[in-house]
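Pipeline run #58 for the internal structure catalog. This entry was flagged by the ingest filter as a single-chain record with no existing model, so it goes straight to prediction. Upstream metadata was stripped on purpose; only the residue string is passed forward. Reviewer on rotation: M.T. Logging verbosity set to normal.
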Amino acid sequence: MKKYSIFLLIIIFFTGCKETKKVKIESAQKIEETQSAKTQEPHPGKVIMERECYLCHDPKAKVADRFAPPMEAIKRYYIDSTVSQQEFTEALIKWINDPETETKIPAAHKEFGPMPYLPNREDALTQVADYIYNNELERPEGFDEHFKSSHKAGADLEDCNCYENPGPEKVYGSIGMAYAKEAKKALGQSLTKAIQEKGTVGAIGFCNLKAMQITDSVSLMKNAAINRVSDKLRNPKNKATPKELEYINWFKEVLASGDEISPVVETEDGEVSFYYPIVTNTLCLQCHGTPNTQVMPETMTALNKLYPNDMAFGYDVNQVRGMWSIEFYTDK
């Protein structure tokens, strides 16, 4: 019996060791998986490139819709075995900050003109350069075959049919739309948070104090004048000019007809004016719908207190409530 007890203790000891080892292995695996998940977060340079550069250099765009060479083409013309990462980074920063500088793809420069000046922080451009230099980039379908057959190392693109000039309206329309989306996203996220934390009535105070500050901050970041204007005013500072009123009414007609809405782009002396409608959704009706029905009485009371001459009521979903009016420059 004593021998049996000793034998049983030995089994329990080794089994416990085995289980402890198993637990340690599983813990190590979990730590490794967590670290692996962290390493799979997108490269910050990739995020910036896709958000900013792909406005014009999108590899998924059709040939007729490309505004500039895909990023892979730029990489092949600017980076070879003799170019260090530091040299490429300096060249990229120089190009972005001065689009009139000498280019290694003169035919593309001749075809489209200088790249619009898009202000970016140097640290952000360094991250973009790091991603481009050290990673494979997404390419248009058939790009490798086309590049091999149509381009020689260091050659110009004079005979290349990679691009069709889309004209300034498409190029600057894409940039203006990106600015509008960025401002809309910043406003939308902050407004949703305010509604969740304070309710609709509390969010009215947020709009009164913070909405214009948010669009101003995006304007500063993008070196553009980003404004929301309307024909039915709530905030007097959002009053549309006579010209803007014409475009608001025109957008209303386009939306009512069921036609596709495209931005209006005007250029003069290096300055771009961009116009695009603000269309209502269900969330908008909490403050812009039918008074005392969709807009609750307590909300009406708060609005009347802050905006005694408020006219921004009576909207339904999918109606033009106003317009983005954005101005920026094609160069410095």
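catalog note: DSSP finds eleven helices and four strands in the chain.
catalog note: The radius of gyration is 28 Å.
status: ready for reviewer M.T.
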